[in-house]
Amino acid sequence: MKKYFVLFCCLFTIAFSSCRKVVTAPFDSSVQAETDDKAIQDYFLLNGITGVKKDASGLYYTIDAPGTGAHPTLTSGITVAYKEYLLDGTLVDSATSYYFSPLSSLIQGWRIGLPMIGTGGKITLYIPSGLAYGIAGSGPVPSNSVLLFNITLQGFAN
Q1: pTM beyond 0.70, yes or no
Q2: What is the dihedral of CA 50, 56, 57, 60, to 10 degrees?
């Protein structure tokens, strides 16, 4: 009798625990944008960073060297050297020379920032998650991560 009671309890627990609904709050991109903006502002404060500009999209940037000549467009293939970091300083990715084509296929933060410089230009981008990989993340980049990129535009072709 005792083993039937234990068996009944196990089956009862399994049956009702599988019916339990998991309630998750819906993703709110405006709340995430505020969270990202605060994280970026805190990063600047913590690291004594000043003189950073913010564009209407929420992208923060500094043009470290403007470069020369024309600037790339969304249809340009670009060659860059870059380092990608999380705000905690973790190096996520880097390349000393890498070709991407076209610029329009890259994350929104790059599409906004890279046309600001010419060949040989250097830019630092502080990219909120909504202009990067968002809720999905990508490879070693966790979801909703603010990213910091140091980019040198080595060249481009239209």
Answers
A1: yes
A2: -10
Q: Does domain 28-157 have CATH number 3.10.50.40?
A: yes
Q: Give the tens place of pLDDT for each residue, 66-89.
A: 999 999 999 999 999 999 999 999
- Given a cut of 70, the residues of the chain with pLDDT beneath it are 1-25
Half-sphere exposure of 35 (CA within 13 A, CB side): 12
Contacts of 107 (CB under 8 A, 6+ apart): 127, 131, 132, 133
Q: How many CA atoms lie within 13 A of 89 on its CB side?
A: 2
Phi and psi at residue 3, to the nearest 5°: -70, -30
Closest-CA residue to 61 (of 131, 5, 144): 131
- CA dist., res. 63 & res. 126, Å (int): 12
